User: Which sequence fits this backbone?
């Protein structure tokens, strides 16, 4: 069968070296230095934990950072885009990007802080695969990506109000007003009105 | 009814109709876009969400010109259960069963990726025996997932026979899982730092017997499909995508390998004991549906090889690493990923030092791969869309989470 005879090419760097359980400053890491050289005043901080490099950059520069990593540092594959809600922190959200380089066989994590209501430049124009990931982050956290070609909700429906992965969104859900038979079932679904276990949430 | 029996009234009516049609056609020529009898027009067509070949509840809004797809817009989310939110509300070990319900065709690899992420965060070493059993479970799962894919995408394209054979073997694999952990689909078969159970007596011998038999059965499937004229007609040249485009779209797994890039996380960034195992990463150059079929069939053969090597290496020993009773990782973040049957499945964990993850994000291969469906489907026929959904090998539980 095709490809059966090929012998494995074995260039395999070991997974994360067994390090102590704390992050190390990585501001002198070659990738971080490369970003700093190309885009001054962009890198806020950088660290390494478990062999994984995390760079925090300014949010208005994120598209340029992505472009720089893709073109100059060969991070051609955008693994994932997501967000984290730090409810009481300022800025409230972190948008987290993972990029992978086939030539380096390594990943880099880029983060930027975003306050509520602020916009982040989209990277969907740099990496096509970021399109749905950013839509998901918008859907789940309400983070707006400026310049995104098609920023609509993706997992919830278009009329949905609220952002489920925010920390202040109740686990039980919210009343969405999506009841089909309001006389039988309460608005938003759930147990019938006369059910003693029914708990009103919102 | 003969001509002379047609009444004058009927003749008038026919003439009237012809006049009206002419007038309409003339009007249409003046106002473009107006509907005429034979005008070719674009049409919107709903494909799913209850279409059997969407493998779940996927809705694709198609813009078609006759049979040709001009635009395809996948609409997902029908199965959204908020898994990532649930992770945040439960302790680390309690998250494992939720991962079963994402990719329910390949629960072991989801379990594995989840555990690996937390092990990376805790920097826990997994004992050798647990590593080997994990690899066996992963590869069994890859076999069964590819068998489901083979059977169902065969059915989608009208080849009903392979389905019965593929599901016969899958049934036996599920029996092995059932004997190991009691479940057939939602396995919950890994724990942070190792495994929940040791193998039952006789399991390895029976598995060795079974996998020795599998290559001959794969030959049977290939005999039904590989040189089948209808199968080739439906798959060769359908949904061609180059390796560069795959990377641009974030496509991983068999799709990427069928486009010519020999990239497999088991080889590129080996986890567990994959670096000690001898296996080939099958690739093809064409990047079409047929090549993806060949790559998956080859992968099944490699999985058999891997399982056989692991079985030979198995020795008695520990199955759980040194994991604290209450898992409270340092306030840090990690991303860890493995090669699932569909592509790269990764977990991004953010810890805040408590016993619950502050944020747990999944990088689901099905979700990211499905994104390229409009690119693959453009210009093909509606019937090819069925082949393309099959070849991406999505599981909607993982797409929607």
Assistant:
């Amino acid at each position: 069968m095709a490809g059966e005879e090929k012998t494995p090419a074995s260039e395999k760097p070991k997974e994360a070296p067994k390090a102590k359980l704390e992050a190390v400053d990585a501001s002198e890491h070659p990738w971080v230095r490369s970003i700093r050289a190309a885009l001054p005043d962009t890198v806020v901080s950088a660290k390494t934990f478990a062999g994984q490099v995390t760079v925090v950059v300014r949010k208005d520069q994120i598209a340029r950072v992505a472009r720089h990593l893709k073109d100059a540092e060969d991070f051609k594959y955008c693994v994932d885009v997501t967000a984290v809600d730090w409810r009481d922190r300022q800025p409230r959200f972190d948008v987290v990007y993972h990029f992978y380089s086939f030539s380096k066989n390594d990943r880099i994590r880029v983060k930027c802080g975003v306050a509520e209501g602020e916009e982040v430049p989209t990277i969907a124009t740099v990496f096509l695969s970021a399109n749905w990931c950013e839509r998901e982050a918008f859907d789940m956290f309400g983070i707006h990506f400026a310049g995104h070609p098609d920023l609509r909700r993706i997992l919830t429906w278009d009329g949905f109000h609220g952002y489920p992965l925010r920390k202040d969104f109740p686990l039980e859900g919210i009343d969405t007003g999506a009841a089909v038979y309001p006389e039988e079932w309460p608005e938003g679904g759930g147990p019938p009105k006369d059910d003693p276990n029914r708990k009103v949430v919102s | 009814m003969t001509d002379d029996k047609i009444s004058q009234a009927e003749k008038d009516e026919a003439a009237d109709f012809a006049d009206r049609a002419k007038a309409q056609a003339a009007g249409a020529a003046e106002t473009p876009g107006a509907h005429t009898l034979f005008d070719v027009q674009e049409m919107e067509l709903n494909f799913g969400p209850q279409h059997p070949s969407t493998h779940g509840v996927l809705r694709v809004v198609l813009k078609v010109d006759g049979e040709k797809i001009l635009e395809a817009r996948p609409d997902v989310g029908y199965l959204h259960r908020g898994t990532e939110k649930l992770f945040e509300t439960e302790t680390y070990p309690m998250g494992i069963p939720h991962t079963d319900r994402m990719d329910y065709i390949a629960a072991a690899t989801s379990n594995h990726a989840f555990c690996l992420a937390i092990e990376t965060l805790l920097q826990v070493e997994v004992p050798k025996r647990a590593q080997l059993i994990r690899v066996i479970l992963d590869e069994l799962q890859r076999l069964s997932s590819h068998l489901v894919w083979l059977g169902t995408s065969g059915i989608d394209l009208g080849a009903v026979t392979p389905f019965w054979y593929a599901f016969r073997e899958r049934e036996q694999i599920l029996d092995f899982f059932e004997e190991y952990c009691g479940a057939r689909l939602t396995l919950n078969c890994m724990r942070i730092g190792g495994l929940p159970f040791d193998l039952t007596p006789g399991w390895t011998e029976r598995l060795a017997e079974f996998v020795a038999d599998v290559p001959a059965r794969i030959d049977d499937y290939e005999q039904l499909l590989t040189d089948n004229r209808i199968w080739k007609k439906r798959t060769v040249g359908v949904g061609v995508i180059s390796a560069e485009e795959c990377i641009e779209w974030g496509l991983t797994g068999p799709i990427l390998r069928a486009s010519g890039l020999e990239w497999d996380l088991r080889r590129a960034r080996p986890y567990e004991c994959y670096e000690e195992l001898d296996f080939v990463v099958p690739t093809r150059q064409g990047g079409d549906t047929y090549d993806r079929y060949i790559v998956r069939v080859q992968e099944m053969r490699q999985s058999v090889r891997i399982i056989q090597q692991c079985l030979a290496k198995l020795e008695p020993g520990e199955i759980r690493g040194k994991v604290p009773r209450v898992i409270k990782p340092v306030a840090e973040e990690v991303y860890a990923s493995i090669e699932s049957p569909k592509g790269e499945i990764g977990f991004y964990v953010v810890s805040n030092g408590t016993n619950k993850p502050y944020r747990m994000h999944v990088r689901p291969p099905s979700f990211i791969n499905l994104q390229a469906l409009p690119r693959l489907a453009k210009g093909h026929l509606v019937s090819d869309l069925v082949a393309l959904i099959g070849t991406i090998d999505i599981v909607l539980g993982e797409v929607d989470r």
